[in-house]
Amino acid sequence: MSGFIASFRLTLQAMFADPAARTVMIGAVLLYSFFYPAAYRHQVASDLPIAVVDADHSATSRELIRHVDALHAVRVVSQPTDLAQARQQLLAGEVDGIVLIPRRLERDILRGGSGQLVLLGNGAYLSRASAILNGLAEGITAFGGEQARRQAAFMGAPQAPPLQLVQRPLYNTREGYGSSVVPGVSELIVHQTLLLGIGVLLGSRRAQLGRRLHFDLPTLSGMAVAFGVVAVGGLLYYVGFTAWAQDYPRGGNIPGLLLAVLLFALATVPFGMFIASFFDTRERAFQYITAVSIPLFFLSNLSWPALASPPALVALAKLLPTTAGINAIVRTQQLGARVPEVGGELLNLLLLAVLYSGLMLWRLGGKRQH
């Protein structure tokens, strides 16, 4: 017992004594909690620059331009004379989208026909192109309703549609990037900063000794518990204070959330110590984190559904604590999922905790390390 307590205390002391470990395991968690969500505080892209090519030069086309410029998503920054000039502005990065108003638009509308517009977006920036095209589509649809009333003055009132679609988002109520991305990435931040700190500490120790590390069971257990305390603290900080401070959905199922947090930490710590046992220097930890951060998020299937993923990747994702951990925490915290509804993820985390604890003992277990 004395060896366990001494190891626990020395590991915490090493975290605070090592500037790199202290920065990534504590400082980075605190800094990310404020600066990362700040990038998504507006939830959706707004005032994206577009060019409008008006080939009709009519009262209707000018009214349409004013209507488009009033949209929240876009801002008309230029009105080139032709499509070729607008395309050059798009290629130069001066605008992110183009609206082409063809000739005879007003004539077609007043005759009872359907006017046609051309919308173009820069596919190099998918999120911005999507925001532009969706914003323009909604704005032009509203403009079309106004023109339909103008047509009615000449042709009589049109027949009312038999059905009307009303879209109301259930969970991501603001339909923004922040509500959909930040909660899942928060758990990944804690996971990656923890692995980075573990890698820095164990990599430094191995570089000093010049050989593979071995610890007796009390020492290894004390280290794991110390890392676990940091992991649980970071997760609770994000799902508690940060979610409240940044006003994200929270408090759906607190008992289930606490269970998910604990199991995620129990799986992440031995996983991190097992991975770090291969690092011969502290720099290897930074290389590892740089390479795997984005794949880990995509494999969590928050941004890409598991049903649309190759079966091999779905199977691989179940071997990573982040996949089950992120999904379990997000579902219990934001959606209020009950424990049986996330039972698969919780069981996955428990099995991973057992698996990686065994691998950690295989790699780091043995004689006492002084």
Give a brief description.
The chain contains 13 helices and four strands. With 370 residues, the chain is mainly alpha-helical. Helix 3 links the parallel strand 1 and strand 2 (74-78).
Give an overview of the whole structure.
- With 370 residues, this protein is mainly α.
- The chain has 13 helices and 4 strands.
- It has a 4-stranded mixed beta sheet, with helices on both faces.
- α9 runs antiparallel to α12 and α9 runs parallel beside α13.
- The longest helix is centred in the middle third of the chain and has 33 residues.
- The chain is elongated and about 90 Å long.
- About 2% of the residues have low confidence.
Structural shape: elongated
Query: What is the terminal-to-terminal distance?
Result: 17 Å
**SS content category:** mainly alpha
The level of helicity is 55-70%
